[in-house]
Design brief:
Number of strands: 25
Helix content: 25-40%
Largest sheet: 8 strands, mixed
Oligomer: single chain
CATH topology of one domain: FAD/NAD(P)-binding domain
Length: 336
């Protein structure tokens, strides 16, 4: 039996795998999709740099062709204002604009090189339990068993739904649409733009040579006009428009007997939080450290589970308060 089974090869799953392997655990990771794959969230907060260094994968953002920026331009009621990320004794902080497909692939490749056993095309459809403890999943015709199972497979909350856990919603239904445009828009080449509008917001940024990414998030009362930001609307579409449910939600029982949930599987906030990848990396690393601590006998299982639940709940509540101060979306809570 493996020490750890991870579902999902995004930033949370890869970070958990790398952290656990570095601690000497035997790790298997199942990913249902083939890579490269498209995902939203291509603006990376400056805080990812120290995390990537700790994981030993800083090289995946070291390419000089990657777009860096000191902050974003925020548009509200027609007024534009530049908001820098901040600075310290070493100078200004710079975020990243890069294709998520290559970033995710780089993280997963690093996990494999360190010894994680990676399997693609594996979609779990049943959780395996023994005496009330999660001990693996069934994917296809095969059973994958481990002492610990980590669901990092995204916002479908697969493990939570299988176990009948509460998925607590804390916003109206929010829908993201996103896509890519090719051409040139010098106005946002070095400064991404975030625009608040009635019923939602728009985002656009350059992520590579002549390549721009846009995202629109609306609630049920949102506008019905064009999704693409006016700044880049005249450029040439590149690929299909995709969508995702980004309603704010989290799983209070995000850890329990034999399992943890990380990344979007544990908590979802709309991309205006601007640190989705950062949070996913932090979740994955924390889960990896906690499981390694339990397996080494340094941390009682009940303490690890309780700590993670409290940590995730506190972080989620903090970000909800922050987002409500920026938007008109009201308090909203029920279980899904």
């Amino acid at each position: 039996m493996k020490d750890l089974l991870i579902l999902g090869g995004g930033p949370a799953g890869s970070a958990a795998a790398i952290t656990a392997v570095q601690a000497g655990l035997d790790v298997t990771l199942l990913e249902r999709a083939s890579f490269p794959r498209h995902r939203p969230g291509e603006t990376l907060h400056p805080g990812v740099e120290p995390l990537l260094r700790r994981l030993g994968v800083a090289h995946i953002v070291a390419d000089r062709s990657i777009v860096r920026h000191q902050g974003v331009r925020v548009v509200r009621e027609g007024q534009r204002a530049f908001q820098p990320y901040g600075a310290d004794g070493e100078g200004s902080w710079y975020g990243f604009q890069l294709p998520r497909a290559s970033f995710d692939a780089g993280l997963l490749e690093a996990a494999a090189k360190r010894g994680a056993d990676i399997h693609f095309g594996c979609e779990p459809w049943r959780v395996i339990q023994t005496a009330g403890r999660v001990c693996g999943v069934k994917a296809g015709e095969r059973e994958w068993r481990a002492r610990w199972t980590v669901d990092a497979a995204g916002a479908s909350h697969h493990l939570a739904r299988q176990l009948g856990l509460e998925v607590r919603r804390c916003s109206p239904k929010l829908v993201a649409r996103y896509g890519y445009m090719t051409g040139n828009c010098p106005e946002i080449d070095d400064v991404p733009e975030f625009s608040f509008e009635t019923g939602g917001w728009r985002w656009c940024a350059r992520i590579g040579p002549s390549l721009y990414q846009w995202t629109t998030v609306t609630d049920a009362s949102g506008w019905r006009g064009a999704s693409v930001a006016p700044l880049i609307a005249s450029l040439q579409p590149a690929g299909p428009v995709r969508g995702a449910d980004v309603s704010w939600r989290y799983v209070p029982q995000c850890a329990g007997s034999g399992y943890f949930q990380a990344g979007d599987a544990a908590a979802v906030l709309d991309p205006s939080a601007a640190h989705g990848v950062l949070s996913a990396l932090m979740c994955g690393m924390k889960v990896g450290h906690l499981i390694a601590g339990v397996e080494a006998g340094r941390v009682p299982e009940t303490i690890a589970v309780g700590h993670y639940r409290e940590w995730l709940g506190r972080w989620f509540a903090h970000d909800c308060r922050l987002l409500r101060s920026l938007s008109a979306w009201p308090q909203h809570q029920h279980s899904a």
